Amino acid sequence: MTDLTPLDTAHAAMEAAPDEDAARLRFYERLADCELFVLLTQEAEGDNISPEVFDLADESFVLVFDREDRLAQFVGKPAPYAALSGRVIAGLLAEQGIGMGVNLDVAPSSILIPPQAVVWLAGTLGNAPSEAEARIEALAPPRGLPDLLLTSLDAKLASAAGLADAAYLLGVTYEGGSKGHVLAFVDAAPGAQGALARAVAEALTFSGIEAGALDVAFFRASEPMSARLAQHGLRFDLPQPVETVQEVLRMAPGSDPAKPPILR
Question: pLDDT, tens digit, for every residue of 118-167?
C-alpha cells in the first residue's frame, strides 16, 4: 500500500510488537499530534460541535479519521465534520468519558480507543513541565541519549513551525557540578516558550524516557551563549511558516488552544 499515513505506520509497529511499551507510546504520540476529522451530526456552529456518538456495549465512541477521504469512504455520502488535533479531541472526550473509533473499517490503523485510554492520553498530554533556574558552567556535545528520543524530538520540532529559529541539544554542567542534557531554543517566538517546553516533555514521555532527563532553555540569537550553543550542540532547524497572516487567521473550531470547541 503506497498511501500509508504516519498513524498507519505507528499502528503497524504497535501491532507487530504488542508487548513493547515504546511502540505503543509512539502510536499514542502520533494520534495526539496528527489532525483528525471528527464525524458530526450537523455542521459546526461557531465553537459548538456535535459529534456522532455510537454506543457499543457499555461504552460510547466518537468516530475520527486521519484523512478526509477516509471519513467520506466510511460514511458513503457527504457528511459534516470538524478538523481538530488529536490532543484537543482527547481532552474533550476525556471530560465526557467517551472513547475514539479511529479509522474504523477504512484503514490499516482501524482501532477502538476505549474511554479509559483517552483519559490516560489527555492526562499525559496535560502534564506541564516544572520551571527552575540554574546557571550553566560548561557545554559539551550530547552523549548517551537514545536514538528513540532523538527521533521523537525531530518529529516534535518539525511540527513546531514558526515557534523558534532553531534548537540545540547539548550536554551541560550546571553551577554546583550537576550534569545533564539541555535542549536550548534560539529566538523563540513571543508566547511560544510554554508550547515548546510541553513539546519536549511529550517527546520524553512518549519515548519512555525518565522524566527530567532533558532540560529546556531559551536564548536570544544576540546573546553570547548562542554562539557557544552552535559550537557544541546538535542543531535542529525548525521549519518556518509559509502561510500569510490572512491564512493563519482563518482558524477552524479548536485551532485556538485558548478557545477549545464545545461538545453538544
Answer: 999 999 888 767 677 788 999 999 988 888 888 889 888 988 889 999 99
Rounded to the nearest 5°, which phi and psi values hold at 179? -120, 160
Q: What one-letter code names the amino acid at 86?
A: G
User: Three cell numbers at 157?
Assistant: 520540532
Q: Which residues contact residue 135 at a Cβ distance below 8 angstroms, ignoring those fewer than 6 apart?
A: 174, 175
Q: What per-residue string of b and e applies to 2-30 under the rule 16 or more CB within 10 Å gives b?
A: eeebbbbebbebbeeeeeeebbbbbbbbb
Exposed/middle/buried for residue 148 (C-beta within 10 Å: 0-12, 13-18, 19+):
middle
Closest CA to 29 of 86, 67, 84, 68: 86
- Structural domains of the chain sorted by starting position, each given as residue range(s) with its CATH number in brackets: 6-126 (3.40.1350.90), 136-237 (3.30.300)
C-alpha closest to that of 117 among 200, 61, 168, 40: 61
Cα 117 to Cα 93: distance, rounded to the nearest angstrom: 11
- SS3 for 63-101 is EEECCHHHHHHHHCCCCCEEEEEHHHHHHHHHHHCCEEE
**pLDDT digits 0-9 by tens, 181-220:** 999 999 999 999 988 998 888 888 888 765 457 899 999 9
